[in-house]
Amino acid sequence: MDTILQRRYGAPEQVLLPGETTRPPPGSGEVRQHRMTRYQQLVRASALYDLIVTAPFATPWTFAHLYAALGVLGASLGTGGDLPAFTPMHALFANLMGSIVLVWSVLRIRVPRVEFGIADGVGRILFATWQAYALAHGATRLLVPFLVGEVAFGVAQLAPVALQRLARRRRLPNESLGATATKDQ
Predict the structure, then answer these.
(1) How many alpha carbons fall within 13 Å on the CB side of residue 28?
(2) Which DSSP helix (H) or strand (E) runs through 33?
(3) How far apart, in whole angstroms, are the C-alpha atoms of residue 89 and residue 84?
(4) CA–CA separation, 121 vs 44, rounded Å?
(5) Which of 65, 112, 121, 163 could form a disulfide with 43 if both were Cys (CB 3.0 to 4.6 A apart)?
(6) What is the pLDDT of residues 86-140, one digit of tens each?
(7) DSSP secondary structure letter of residue 82
């Protein structure tokens, strides 16, 4: 089964973690080393980006420092838009988001599966949508680099899958007709 995704990024059934070994044929004495596919490396890179960017959101203390630093940065760059005063409820939602993204990041770093890349790509498009919505409604332009990161990783993780599905659809009518004719005979 030679698909665009497999040709470009490797077969999804390959071992996900570098350094893992598979069982060699009995008696061969061989140890197999597997490399991560390019797609799996992309999933891991997006997870590392998330880990770095969202770690400060995970606790009330780190978030307080991050929020103060963003305020100073926004004022010095003249990015416009306001960083509103945060109540404990606002901080709670920031901490919840930071915590769950950290867990999601660690999972994708440890096990960078194709399915996780697809789910992450969809999540990034959602994040980018809400960031664009906030920008359109007066949020600070400090969001723009985050928006660019979300869109870039979202497209990078979803485009290969979309190309593979497109290629499969183009081949499907011919293959399915052949399969149907064989079954009827």
Answers:
(1) 8
(2) strand 32-33
(3) 13
(4) 12
(5) 112
(6) 899 999 999 999 999 999 999 999 999 999 999 999 999 999 999 999 999 999 9
(7) B
Distance CA 140, CA 67 (A): 13
Q: Could you tell me which residues come within 8 angstroms of residue 43 by beta carbon, excluding any fewer than 6 positions away?
A: 108, 112, 113, 114, 116, 117, 120, 157
Task: Tell which residue, 77, 45, 62, has the closest CA to residue 145.
Answer: 77
For tokens 């919840």, the residue is: 96
- The type of residue at 124 is R
End-to-end Cα separation, the chain, in angstroms: 25
pTM score: 0.73
Non-local CB neighbours of 123 within 8 Å, separated by 6+ positions: 154
Q: List C-alpha distances in Å: 117 to 9, 26, 89, 95, 172.
A: 12, 34, 31, 23, 25
29: left (phi over 0), alpha (psi -120 to 50) or beta: left
**Which one-letter DSSP state was computed for residue 132?**
H
